Amino acid sequence: MSGWDEGAIYYSDQAQSLGGDGSGGTGDSSASASHHSVLQKFKEFLRNFGADKNVFPYRESLKSNSKYLIVDLEDLHAFDADLPAKLRSAPADYLPLFENAAGQVLASLKTKEPGNEGQLEEPIPEDVQILLTSKEDPVSMRSLGAQYISKLVKVAGITIAASRVKAKATYVIVMCKNCKNVQRVPCRPGLGGAIVPRSCSHIPQPGEEPCPLDPWVVVPEKSKYVDQQTLKLQENPEDVPTGELPRNMLLSVDRHLVQTIVPGTRLTIMGIYSIYQAANSSTSHKGAVAVRQPYIRVVGIEEANEANSRGPTDFTQQEIADFKSFAANPDAYKNICSKIAPSIFGHDDVKKAVACLLFGGSRKNLPDGVKLRGDINVLLLGDPSTAKSQFLKFVEKTAPVAVYTSGKGSSAAGLTASVIRDTSSREFYLEGGAMVLADGGVVCIDEFDKMRPEDRVAIHEAMEQQTISIAKAGITTVLNSRTSVLAAANPPSGRYDDLKTAQDNIDLQTTILSRFDLIFIVKDVRNQGQDKIIASHIIKVHASADASIGDNRSSEEDNWLKRYIQYCRTNVHPRLSEPATTLLQNNYVNIRQDMRNQANDTGESAAIPITVRQLEAIVRLSEALAKMKLSHVATEENVQEALRLFKVATMDAARSGINQQINLTTQMANEVKW
């Protein structure tokens, strides 16, 4: 019994054995036994799931990719109903067991390679990251409260910021300064730190100096690290209640999920709702020791598909059959246009243009790395009260991804991207603006003419190259903004003035005008017959606004249109046929010749330039018209309709103004103004 009294501290595990029957560590041993049985169940699931169909998906994916494994909770539930319940209630306890089981299964699979005896070379179990997915509905970010702490949650949103990658220790090797005793201290996962003991466990020999308090020094080169990154997830714009600011949540991703997400991506994440002690909270909340900040430790990411669509991306066989039968109808184009803003009377060509904008052309990647945009930009310019903003609101509601912004309330940084300094880490990070958040969708900009010129210049690159380049505060990067732009503007005098030239009415630079595929001049024509029809239509809309049955049907139709647009954008990428290209080429040359003749006659160039961009615009319109009918080839008929739209929109706008009716001298123009 020598050394019994030599200064060491002994304690009993009474707190852990309270659940037992009075015998020492019963609680502890039963917990370890249950953990062992769960580990065996996890191993059995990975090895044998799908045995009834003679398909082993998890074994095969482990063999092909030994770094991480994506596990569906529905499969786990089908195998054993207890395991998902355990994972949901205590993920921090059972997920490491699952990863341990995956490592052991992978090691056992590797021994079965031909030529190995099994016992001769036992491979060391590798670290396998388990990523969970589930088909359940995501929880709202606002409803996450204290009852969800340490539970598994599923949340949807948009990433607005991503930090740099850091190295996070999984365990730290510490060494005593006095006696050189080495100890291994495990670190908590996520944003938690390591709890280092205050004193050294070494028992000093007689005559030896005892170790002081806090004697430890970290030995970084012997510790083990994994990559870690923090993201900021913001609520989806459509989930934010009216008048509220969108909430955001801190996410922590590690290992193979690092650097897979860029700002502006729509995500649905599975994670463990956790808490951490914020670095600056001790200074701001004096004495608030028990207050912790929430964050989510991500254990699975589902990214929205390429079309960045909301809602489920998989279509049922019934839906696909409905879409195909609808597209086979010769009147499919007319039917789609009738579904665009049905509450707005007239404006048939604008509705057709908005339909083309929603479906979009085909994005092309050339062999030399040049990317040609497939998105269509439309400008509505004209009098007040001609339903321009209503079109914008309709598109915001119908497009799979849309952001609505007003010209006066938008700055260059708010539309593109801003560099913000993090308060806790003092490092700069990027936050994407409206053009980045609407990647794969539509940006609706109202009051386009009220924007400051320097802010309008900021979206030039986004409208043609479909990227946003940033070089600020040491951050040099390129963000994607593959968006269509639907803009509404008023002429400088508020109303469209027929006595002015086109240049005076369209007070926008040619650089921005050439980036719009279609430019509509919407006039409020005073015509008694038409006024009567419009008045009766508007009164009818107001009278039948409360009919709940029609309302229900219209919301279903909106949803159907959104799904159809989503399906077309994802699955159909048309190209021009040979005869269509010849027709388009000849027409483009004729249009350029007409504009040249017009400039010679009037003595001044057109307000809207007709350039190669306009040729590409007609190509995109033809592809969008083919896409509406689920056709993979844009025919001559599509090109004819695209040319007609182009002529009634951009060509009419270019030819508008008093100079086209009569040749005014400067003196005559001044007399007219008086």
Automatic annotation (TrEMBL):
UniProt keyword terms in alphabetical order: ATP-binding, Cell cycle, DNA replication, DNA-binding, Helicase, Hydrolase, Nucleotide-binding, Nucleus
Reactions catalysed according to its record: ATP + H2O = ADP + phosphate + H(+)
Tagged with keyword Cell cycle: yes
Residues of the MCM C-terminal AAA(+) ATPase domain: 332-538
Gene3D superfamilies registered for this protein in UniProt: 2.20.28.10, mini-chromosome maintenance (MCM) complex, chain A, domain 1, Nucleic acid-binding proteins, P-loop containing nucleotide triphosphate hydrolases
SMART domains: MCM
Keyword set includes Isomerase: no
InterPro entries the record matches: MCM, MCM5, MCM_CS, MCM_dom, MCM_lid, MCM_N, MCM_OB, NA-bd_OB-fold
EC number per UniProt: 3.6.4.12
Main location: nucleus
Domain of life: Eukaryota
Subcellular location: Nucleus
Family membership noted in the UniProt record: Belongs to the MCM family.
SUBUNIT field: Component of the MCM2-7 complex.
Described function: Acts as component of the MCM2-7 complex (MCM complex) which is the replicative helicase essential for 'once per cell cycle' DNA replication initiation and elongation in eukaryotic cells. The active ATPase sites in the MCM2-7 ring are formed through the interaction surfaces of two neighboring subunits such that a critical structure of a conserved arginine finger motif is provided in trans relative to the ATP-binding site of the Walker A box of the adjacent subunit. The six ATPase active sites, however, are likely to contribute differentially to the complex helicase activity.
Designated name of the protein: DNA replication licensing factor MCM5
Organism per entry: Ziziphus jujuba
